[in-house]
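hey so i finally got around to running the thing on that chain from the lab meeting. sorry it took forever, my laptop kept dying and i had to restart like 3 times. anyway pasting the input first so we r on the same page abt which one it is
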Amino acid sequence: MTQSNKTLRNLILSVAAFFVLAAVAIFVIDQARKSREQIPVLGQLPEFQFTERSGAPFGLQDMKGRLNVVDFIFTHCKGPCPILASKMFSLYKAFEGSSKVQLISISVDPERDSLSVLREYAERQGVTDNRWVFLRAPIEEVVALSENGFMLAAEDLPGNHTTKFVLVDERGQIRGYFDGLSDASINILKGQISQLARELP
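ok and heres what got predicted. didnt touch it at all, straight out
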């Protein structure tokens, strides 16, 4: 084989390899897009501004850029809240090494859940950083965000609060509702968090 033929063959092989790699890259990107689309968008959260246990303001902009799991609790709850807290703590530990995941607990009893009470509650749950935040606001604002933002009933609070966990993506979009009392549901939630997290920068 002459030198020119070898050069031509190498050129053809290089071009072919380029197109194969390009096709593979397009396939991977398309699969990632499809997998994301399999987790539906169920709604968009409105702007809001509550107060975090530290006293700092916290709103929709503080949720953007990360995946968020939101629940509604009150600190002296003797019913489902201890179970919800344990499930949230399992998420807190599962994504311990990730800055892409944020947990948010919103008090449905702001009269009794002062900022100092929320700080003590967070400590009792084993929270040592800001990956799990605890929010309070006037009850009418909590009800409005629950009903008009998260599309969850908020009647007869605090006792009759929802036990749903809500998955909110980095754009403030609701991606799923999960039974906060069910291990099986929480496992599905963990899988969806991992799936969406892989697509974040």
